[in-house]
Amino acid sequence: MSAPFQEKEALADIFGYIKDVDEQKFCVILENLRKEKVQDIIGYLLDNWNQSQLESCILQKGENITLADKEQKLSVVRNDIKQITEVLKKLKDHEFNKLDFSSKKNEESTLSLINSIKDNSRIIEFLQFLVHITSIDETLIQCGSNSIHILVYMKVDLRNKNFEKIKIQNTSLLGANLVRCNFSESQFKNVNISGINLNGALLLNCKWSDLRISELQKFHGHSNAFNSVCFSPDGNTLASGSADKSIGLWDVKTGQQKAKLKIHRGSAWSVCFSPNGNTLASGSDDKSIRLWDVQTGQQKAKLYGHSNDINSVCFSPDGNTLVSGSSDKSIRLWDVKIGQQKAKLDGHSNAVNSVCFSHDGNTLASGSTDKSIRLWDVKTGQQKAKLDGHSGYVFSVCFSPDGNTLASGSDDKSIRLWDVKTGQQKAKLDGHTSTVYSVCFSPDGNTLASGSDDKSIRLWDVKTGQQKAKLDGHTSTVYSVCFSPDGNTLASGSDDKSIRLWDVKTGQQKAKLDGHTSTVYSVCFSPDGNTLASGSDDKSIRLWDVKTGQQKAKLDGHTSTVYSVCFSPDGNTLASGSDDKSIRLWDVKTGQQKAKLDGHTSTVYSVCFSPDGNTLASGSDDKSIRLWDVKTGQQKAKLDGHTSTVYSVCFSPDGNTLASGSDDKSIRFWDVQNEKEILPADKNYKDIQTQFTFLKHTFASIQQFYNFTNISNTNILSIRCFNSKRRIYKSLRY
């Protein structure tokens, strides 16, 4: 096959035509193209009237023309416009506008071009011009896509650039540093975004699809197939079970092996961390289950009872019970503390390949070679349901985070989604060309990952059932897939003896400010509306300029997820509540921590300032509400009454009443001065009600609710307070 450039003029020669063109002309041309809403750039530039208009605009920027004589200036401008037009015509018909120049096949030609243009700043500016015109002329999209790839490869500084509405396809932006760029309304399709840095970038109404993401790490150490992989709860350690009879513990960041546990006399088919991360369970074809101390690597216990291979092990959410599924057709429940068998669940007529607890620990799912899925009541040991539908062995089952959906992977090459309550099949996901060995939900429940004998990993949209991405790299069967706790990384274990980590960046977004490295749980506007504060699972708080979308500051201090942020009425102080059980007060101007308020014994989900700014209220997973003196940082009061997590707290406009919403399905009112609950029998109760509105999915008038102890069995996640005089809403949402 002939080289790409043999049929057409050499690409380096084409770019050479504009090596002396003043780069300011590109800006003027772009400005006019956008102003005139042009779609055919070449046709526009060939028109005599348009040429004269451009000439006039460029001549008005006289400071950019070095020649003194006006006629000479005009001659230069005309020649430059002609050169730009000719280059665009040549590029449009060139392979540069048809092929992916980031591919291996075209690597030699790309490097040759880079070598010839790397020292010419005007050609580099022209490449950026080509990127921008993808937002105008769809016939030059591949040309612009190859241009941005070359710019990234050359490490040209693209930070803070405005790439609004550009359209990029079929290329690689591997390792691109695009900090604080504006990509609003951009369209990316089939683009490799591995290692891309979008911190502080503006991504409003983007349409990005079929994005490609490369592996982050590849681990070597086992001498035979990887059968199972599992992240530790903190995401720092990965455990692997192998056919070489050993278990490996790996450092996720470095890829180095931390320990190798070799006690089993057969293949280690399954590994699972306890919820606190201190214990690892492993199941083997030597018919034993072993419990390991993760820190020391020592065996803590050996559990015997099964009469055949142990195919799957899983801890209950509280860590007290371990379940195992075996080729002996049985499921067994074990008491982790004493190492004794608690129960044996019979029902399957063939090997049990996968077991999984629901998130509340009350239901157990099992998948079997008998082609069925069964749901079990953990307390009674009784079978609750039998889900039939697969036409092949069921190798893997996994509950969604909310416990309402069960996913299953089978030898029939399909994945199925089931309604746990009804036992009915909700969806069938087809795409794999061979057995599906493993399925795993992302922490948010929106994405499902699957690993298959076809060597691929696939990501699925749980709501639509559509395939979002296909991750290739393994050279043999993928036996295990697992999301990291933050959902950003996927680990896979394969018969090719490798573990691979994949960066999972999913989906479309309407508005996004990149900077946080994990889930954003809370946002709050400053009183003047100019600043937005955000709290995140990455333990940080960030302050954003609302007008520009740029990050103004990053506040570090919390040691765990920040669930709630709230500005003081004067806008000078920011309060934050966290999973680290603390509340922190921050100076908005300096970004420094002013105070740390300790007292809650569990996650702080909500914080809210009183209207005068002197008192802060907080709601927690410890079921309590606490009132704090903002000046001294001391706890003023502890309000008890809720029987479950308090998700939201909000002051009335006069500051005398506090409302709280809880997972116990009730809303309660509190007298702030007297530090006691206001009951429905109190004479002022109805007057107090009218100051508040409640948010479920949409706003609802307070008059619709008369029984605040049980509002349609709805968990109260947000309360809003309305001040009719100042027409200000105060809101805290979780």
Explain how this protein is built.
This protein is mainly beta and 734 residues long. The protein folds into three domains: 11-156, no CATH class; 215-460 and 475-503, YVTN repeat-like/Quinoprotein amine dehydrogenase (Methylamine Dehydrogenase, Chain H, 7 Propeller), CATH 2.130.10; 520-733, Methylamine Dehydrogenase, Chain H, CATH 2.130.10. Helices cover 14% and strands 37% of the residues. The strands form 13 sheets. It has a four-stranded antiparallel beta sheet with strand order 4-31-30-29, with no helix packed on it. It has a four-stranded antiparallel beta sheet with strand order 5-6-7-8, with no helix packed on it. The protein has a four-stranded antiparallel beta sheet with strand order 9-10-11-12, with no helix packed on it. β50 (718-723) and β51 (728-733) form a beta hairpin. α4 (48-60) packs across α5 (70-92) and α7 (121-132) crosses α8. The protein starts with 10 loop residues before the first helix and ends with a strand.
